[in-house]
Amino acid sequence: MRLCVGHLALITSEKALRQLCAPDGIVERVQIITARETDRSRGFGCVEMPNATETTATLAGLQGTPCGGRTFTITEARSCEGRDGPQRPRW
Asked: Which helix (DSSP H) or strand (DSSP E) does residue 12 occupy?
């Protein structure tokens, strides 16, 4: 299962996010989303865990946790399947 972690402090690293989620279970992958132009954090990331029970425990345990002056917002990631067609360009 995949979790979206929002409202991350801009200095939060992938290693730090992995360590926060690790007590609840095995973490397969962590990714902090960065801006293409500056390579700086955009303030959110994704965590993938193989076990649904562990993922639920992480979701409940970290929701509202303060870190770096911000409070985490964690949700289950939605699938991209079912979108109708390509997205329109932003410009």
From this structure: none
Q: How far is Cα 48 from Cα 55, in angstroms, rounded to an integer?
A: 8
pLDDT band at 31 (very low <50, low <70, confident <90, very high): very high
Closest CA to 12 of 36, 38, 33, 37: 33
Domains along the chain with CATH numbers: 2-76 (3.30.70.330)
Neighbour tally for 61: CB within 10 Å: 14
Cα–Cα distance, 19 to 36 (Å, whole number): 25
pTM: 0.75
